[in-house]
Amino acid sequence: MEENELLQLSKNDDGILAEVEMEFCELSEISEGMCSCVCISDEQCCGCILQ
Amino acid sequence: METIELQSKCGKWENIDWYLLSSKFSKSEIFYCPTLRISMLINDSLSESLREGNLPSAIREKLNKRKNNPITPIIERPKAFHLSIGLSNNCTLGCLYCHADANKETTISKSVVDSAIDYSFQEAGKTPKRMLTVSFAVGGEPTMDWRLFTYTVNKIREFEKIHHYNVDKVYLSMTTNCYYGLPKRKFVAENFDTLTLSIDGYPEIQDSHRPNRSSKGSSSVVEETCKYFVDHGGVRVGVRATVTKSSVNYLTEIVDYFSIKFGNNYSVTFEPMVQIGRALNNALQSPSETEFAINLWKAKKRGEEIGIQVSSSGSNIKNLIGRYCGAMSIPSFTVCTDGTVTACHRDQDGKDYGYGFIDELTGFVQISEEKIKSNILKSELPESCNSCFAKFHCAGDCPDLRRINFSRCNFNRYMIYKQLEELLLKKINYRVFNN
Q: Is B196 left (phi over 0), alpha (psi -120 to 50) or beta?
């Protein structure tokens, strides 16, 4: 469904069309033990900004 | 001309930052309050009030329910120990944009390797999980001097077996150019836990960006190696492609090509070429932020369809962080070929973030606490980020990119906005189809 149609269908009296509770990673999930340089996840050391 | 620039207004409610986000490329207006972990798609009337600086009661009610549980962006990283070793400043490839300009015949001495490994086990044994992570990512291709490479890897694995200094587990990771044959592939796959494979795309792109030292194509060997590592199954694989102005419009096709060649049991990271090292002296150009952002988003969507996670460093919607990485603050123990110890593996000669030295003759490891403190300051969130809604998703971005004035701000903001918008539209979609 197109964004426009979705927005039409989601009209709500209080003006809030949708609400999301954000989930963020815990400390250990971000960097525990793994490459402290440029890690994207616990398990993958990528050296990703090297070229 | 498409634009990725966003308009955002930052406000405060009870000392908590909120943001109103709008863009020319989308009809949605988003209210975002990261530290209260809430995001909302709102109508024009609420947006108008927010633009005038008034927090509408409907939004205030939502925030009130959450105000007692704000979260703090992560600043302190766990006290882990990470060793990174630069074995060589040379390479089997002649990539046109090499950040390290790796063509120098210098290698690290075995005595410095021995001291670095011993010191790292000793320090890792004192960390809460008694775990050591090792990467080979400073200067040149790690496998270039094969004898030195196997010596280093075997020594680390032997120390792991005997629980040297009580270390329980060692993880080995490496970014590699994949330009080698079966015996070397076999050794690497058997000894490494994670590998980042540098390949820029299909042969036309790979061979023009990453030729061998005789200026011949590298793609056939590199592709065979990538396939070997992915199929091996014992090693976790990420594919890393550098993106230039000439390849930026083909990111979706590159993802498709990788999937045909290697299946989908790996992730793909696209990173824009940065004009440093060898890239300063050739015709390749960095992609614009707009081109990179729009094409990366398309490639990410394509990846979702075929089961490949596509990403780029910079910002991450799943993280709320106060520092981009732990390299400066932990700090990372990155040993250059001359024995200099630095915090960042981009700093191949230790000139920018060097904080120590390993003496080749005595093996003594000298550390400067003062320099460590000065490096930590470099990783703090810049004041210029204060009013940016993405600041806790990128934490000011890589300090080393900031140092060379390479900005990904518009790209980072676009990616965060698109992901917020996607989460919210999915919510509506779900509601519509379930009512």
A: beta
Cβ contact A45–B173 (<8 Å): yes
Which of chain A's residues have a Cβ under 8 Å away from the Cβ of B242? 51
CA B76 to chain centre: 18
Q: Which residues of A29-48 are buried (b: 16+ CB within 10 A; e: fewer)?
A: ebbbbbbbbbbbbeebbbbb
Cβ B236–A17 below 8 Å, yes or no? no
Q: Beta strands of B228-358 (E only): which ranges?
A: 236-243, 267-272, 309-311, 333-335, 340-342, 354-358
User: Is some CB atom of chain A closer than 8 A to the CB atom of B331?
Assistant: yes
Higher pLDDT, B362 or B434: B362
Structural tokens at position B388? 């940016």
pLDDT of residue A47: 40
- Contact list in A for residue B173 (CB cut-off 8 A) is 34-35, 44-45, 47
pLDDT 10s digit of each residue in chain A, 51 long? 566 666 666 666 789 999 999 988 765 544 433 333 334 334 333 344 445
Of B27, B82, B420, the CB nearest to A36: B82
| pLDDT given at position B328 | 83
CB contacts, 8 Å: B319 with chain A: 24-25, 30
Predicted ipTM > 0.95: no
Give whole-number Cα distances, B134 to B14, B160, B195, B356, in Å: 45, 12, 12, 18
Between chain A and chain B, the number of residue pairs with CB atoms below 8 A apart is: 202
User: What are phi and psi for residue B18, nearest 5 degrees?
Assistant: -130, 160
Peptide bond into B382 cis (omega under 30): no
pLDDT at A43: 36
Instruction: Give mean pLDDT, residues B115-134.
Output: 92
Q: Among all residues of chain A, which has the CA nearest to that of B235?
A: A44
Cβ separation B318–A23 shorter than 8 A: yes
∠ Cα B371 B401 B193 (to 5°): 80
Judged by a CB distance cut-off of 8 A, whether residue A49 touches chain B is yes
CB-CB: which of B43, B321, B325 is closest to A38?
B325
B56/B46 Cα distance (integer angstroms): 6
Query: Tokens 């060793």 label which residue?
Result: B83
Strands B6-13 vs B16-23: parallel, antiparallel or unpaired: antiparallel
Q: What is the mean pLDDT of residues B385-407?
A: 91
Quick: pLDDT tens for B245-301.
Answer: 999 999 999 999 999 999 999 989 999 999 888 999 888 999 999 999 999 999 999
Q: Measure the CA–CA gap between B268 and B345, rounded to whole angstroms.
A: 21
